[in-house]
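Data card: per-record layout.
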Amino acid sequence: MSERDHELPGRVVVVTFAPPELLASFEREIGLPFPVYGDPDRAAYDAFGLGRASVARVWLDPRVWRSYAKLLGRGRRVHRVHEDTLQLGGDVVLDAEGRVRWTYRSRGPEDRPSVDELVAALGLPEPAVG
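The structure for this 130-residue chain is written out next.
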């Protein structure tokens, strides 16, 4: 975890629709320093309006292939898919009272907000450059 993580006015958690028995391997593979929770029934996905993509958007879109090529270039391995590849993800920022302050609904598997967008959504000041 970086020093910046300790400055967050809240907690970062990851929610996946993977079943609980797969969470430990998911955490090891991704290497996230945050807790990971399973939502196999996708209640959170439904509550936050995270939809589904078409087969064409997931498997034929050049943006997705470019994204995968970048991951392979960084040494990530390709794994056989066991999960629902059409389920879209997103990012949600809640305030201390649990109210939704910002939501980003992905339009495809490669469509994610930048770290800067997430920091801005948290209302954190821009880091000093210099």
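Known properties of this structure: Helices lie at 23-30, 43-47, 55-59, 62-73, 115-122. The chain has one domain: 3-122.

See the next section for split statistics.
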